Amino acid sequence: MHPFTHTIRRALAALLGGALLAQAGAALADVSPLSVSGNKILAGGQPASFAGNSLFWSNTGWGGEKYYNASVVSWLKNDWKSRVVRVAMGVDEGSGYLQDPAGNKARVKAVVDAAIANDLYVIIDWHSHHAEDYRTQAVAFFEEMARTYGKSNHVIYEVYNEPLNVSWSGTIKPYAQAVINAIRAIDPDNLIIVGTPNWSQDVDAASRDPIRGTNIAYTLHFYAGSHGQWLRDKAQTALNNGIPLFVTEWGSVNASGDGAVAEAETAAWMDFLKTRGISHANWSLNDKAEGASALVPGASPQGGWSAGQLTRSGTLAKQIISGWGGGPTPTPGCTRATLPARVQAEAYCNMAGIQVEPTTDVDGGGNVGYIDAGDWMTYDVNVPTAGSYVVKYRVASAPGGGVIQLERAGGGTVFGTVNVPATGGWQRWTTVQHTVNLPAGAQTLALLAKAGGFNVNWLDLSPAGSPVPTGITIQAESFDAQSGVQTEGTTDTGGGLNVGYLDAGDWLSYPAINLTAGGTYLIEYRVASLNGGGNLQLEEAGGSVVYGALNVPSTGGWQNWTTISHTVTLPAGSRKFGIAVRNGGWNLNWFRVTKTP
Fold first, then answer.
1. C-alpha distance from residue 565 to each of 496, 549, 571, 593 (Å)
2. What family does this belong to (predicted)?
3. 148, exposed or middle or buried, with CB in 10 Å at 0-12, 13-18, 19+?
4. Quick check: 490 and 477 in contact, CB under 8 A?
């Protein structure tokens, strides 16, 4: 994926260059880029979920449009602690976009601009129940939004609010694919959310025939007074089938938008979303006289609302949103790695200018990209003995010409530089290396881009003369399908994520890898278990062939890691591995496949 220029950040980087490292603790104002990994939406490559508000229909004269302004956005951030705001641009209803494009579009832009200024995520929603009838207009609108806002991490495109009882595969998916293609021709990576049949409830139907593409999620809507466990079951089916969900609209009342607050069912829904890391926006930030409105009639159109100006549903929504948290920590994957170690590039402790995106490299997960001259990342390491170390970098670059400088964070000491060649593509990977002299002790290293135009998947630091590893390491969270598991941040060496919440009957499957020779292979698993008693089975994905099974011992804690292994016989060729959980109660960080002599 090619780097592009964020004007302000790049100007700062060019001006200050490596001197920025001295201010590594001070974050530049921005939000983390969102990406999709399996059934999760990640922020900055780490699991995260956000809570916020959906505005009411933008339609001229409907009443809700008075809240489409910067003062309201600022109040939601500072008083409600909202992390996301949704602009519900009415399309085909009276005085919507089709009848008043200038007025509705101006309101949308006012909120988007304010959200960016306040560092909130913002959902641009094509708020229609019949979007397939207005494909041409949708394409033109989202092309304009992508041209205007596509370089901002803040912006999320919701291309269809609530389809009615229409076919997913025959109607909604073809419409969505056309709009997505138009967006992707301009904006290659911002999150896109697609509505699902029956008022965005049939997410299970979408999960059986997902859209091809990157960074695509699916809309789930619920109203706690009408929708209960049966809809959570449909949502769980969709997650089990591997698609990510975003609740772009929910209410604590009935599906009509009115009625009493269903507190117990709302709590059940929030537990469901929280434990699965699903983001959500409450309907609606308006003063219409109905149960779903957060504000009492006549509440100020500029924010500043007292507790008495909130409805019962508004009071509950504010409690939920302000207490949600759910975002990534400022140092998302940062742990102190003791050498020798392989550190995932996205497990930086601080950075400037870069973004994290999914990788197609052999070990899956994420890579760091959008690297321009002056960008940097820092990593905490412990060097047990002073001496010569081989530092390897897993890189990809379409044009080549990049230069990596390894230095002490904050500048001053430069350990060495290495050139990044052209690899033939942004996801065509190779390994470059150099030998440097490192002092002993705990320290923070920095990777500074002296010249940009490359991606980094990982860096590997080992004493000079160490044996060269020959195995293929597969990160546990890089599955392409799963049932029953969740990912979480790991404290294991190298940082990143591990897979957890493994119960009997759960399973994971992984993208195919190519084994050049058949024979005996050592399979190692990096596991942690508080109580032990677990058992895993290595198989061909789907279970048609079982290669071997292994017991998981107690390690004394869910983040106390050890490596277990067994030897299996594997045929040559493309192998798509699966791991079946026969007995649960353990976590998995990675597994490694190594040909034995």
1. 22, 10, 19, 10
2. Belongs to the glycosyl hydrolase 5 (cellulase A) family.
3. middle
4. no
